Amino acid sequence: MSYLVLHVRxxxxxxxxxxxxxxxxxxxxxxxxxxxxxxxxxAPLNMSVGEELVNSFGQAPxxxxxxxxxxxxxxxxxVLVLAGAQLRQPVRLGGSENQKTV
Length: 102
Known about the structure:
Blueprint: E1 2-14, E2 20-29, E3 45-50, H1 51-54, E4 59-60, E5 62-72, E6 78-90, E7 98-99
Antiparallel strand pairs: 1-2, 1-5, 2-3, 4-7, 5-6
């Protein structure tokens, strides 16, 4: 399914207990998602992705094919995770586009 990726913000930091965390926060729109009663437009969604997927997002904004999977979370509850991303079509917003390796 295709999603409009608006922004990718890489992170690389050490937690208080000394663990190194690397990855990115991806902000995207699901243009096929229905809106709630009284809402107008599409609310942005945010997801953290691991370091192994950061280079999959070489341009934003853009339409990406995002491959979502489920993993077992706390108490056996399913957690949505991103397993892959592939750029389908670059998008220009306001005459600008950002093409760089994140």
